[in-house]
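Entry for the shared binder. Reason: the reviewer on the internal report wants the predicted structure included alongside the sequence.
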Amino acid sequence: MARCFTFLLSLTLIVSPLFAGEKEGTLDIYFIDVEGGAATLIVTPTGESILIDSGYPDLNGRDRDRILDTLKNQAKLDHLDHAVVSHWHLDHYGNHASLSALIPIHNFWDRGIPDALQEDKNFDTRIADYRAASQNESKALTAGDTFELDSNGTPLKVTIVAASREVIENTGEANPFASEHEPKPVDNSDNASSLGILLEFGDFRFLCCGDLTWNTEAKLMTPNNPIGKIDLFMVTHHGLPNSNNPVFVKAIDPVVAVMCNGPKKGGHPDTIATLGSCKSLKHLYQLHRNVTLGSEEQTPAAYIANSEPTENCEGIGVKATVAANGTSYEVQIGQAGTRNKYESRSSKH
């Protein structure tokens, strides 16, 4: 049975009055460029903030500073209500501890902290930093957990669809692409344990699944599709081909996809081809041009935020702004980029 929570009131969080006054009832999603890691900031209509993942540590504070710039200068936040770790790989939780020293973080969420991580010989040290930052009070999420957030009238709900290799009950309509699943070798890495997070705001639906891998995606989506179709999809695992199983991607059939890849990490042509086969896809946005691919093998240049290699990268992000009633949304590159408008799926019927 799903556990139900209310973030805002039950956890006695405080929304900055300045920020709340500036909001116009929109739901804002910032895809922050951490060059092949992940950091996604969600700000609700009431100013409640959720940061999913935090990029790489070190690198002269590159990713930490890009996250702080987005928080403070773009979203006008003076604290974080929730910091979420999708899974225990360094490009996803690398800055949680350092961020907590620079900006108040009220709550930490993760899939549960394992005793050890075979693929990371330094996990003991790194997890000690995270435990210290969270004061050893992070909250573990499980598949089926649901959260209803205060949103000034338009219903706003978060559902955990996958966690620690477990998935929500396989209900819903039959997945017409179920027969396309071709199993890959068992993935024993922590990628397969990633959190899958579905956010619903009125008619608008956004899905973010960390680095969830091929066989777990199939477990989630076969034989039935318990998620339904999605408006905005954060492409899984930076667009790598050991994730983004067609049985999963084609079933959710996104209208817009955002790929958090790096110049040489992710953005694989197989994933781009899978996305291109989705009948509803209008645009794929890439945080980076894949410098190893030709222009014809990736999304058009107008939908790529950063085209230069790492040493020249400006760190431009992608932002989605969802209308206060949830019936439409806009996606733009950078703060001054062209705003492309899309209708939420349910509002079309």
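Summary line for the report: The longest strand covers residues 156-163.
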